[in-house]
Amino acid sequence: MILTDLTKSGYLLLKKDRSELISQIKELNDLLDDIDFVYPFLESLFDPKINLLEEDGKYLGSIDIIYPTAPEPVQIKFEIGSISDYTNDNQSKLQEDLDNRANQILKEKFPLHFS
What we know:
Layout: H1 8-46, E1 50-55, E2 58-65, E3 74-82, H2 91-109
Antiparallel strand pairs: 1-2, 2-3
């Protein structure tokens, strides 16, 4: 599809190629729209953005679940443990516990999505 023929036959070939490309792009956009309907929900389950919060001397985690039909994400909060249980030397343990607890909560709330 190199534009070297600037004659009428080149134009007709370019017109045909352009039409085919537009059709392919439309098909791919339609497919992407279908995928984008459910992708944010699945992403919030399988690649969640987990937030760490401090409240009343405890560490809490939160995850936003993006439902395809809900106007706003639904936040799930869960307890990790007492702040005193985690020292500066134990920050990797805090992250590990946060991730593990988040996965456990998601599996409990959405068992059909985890096999």
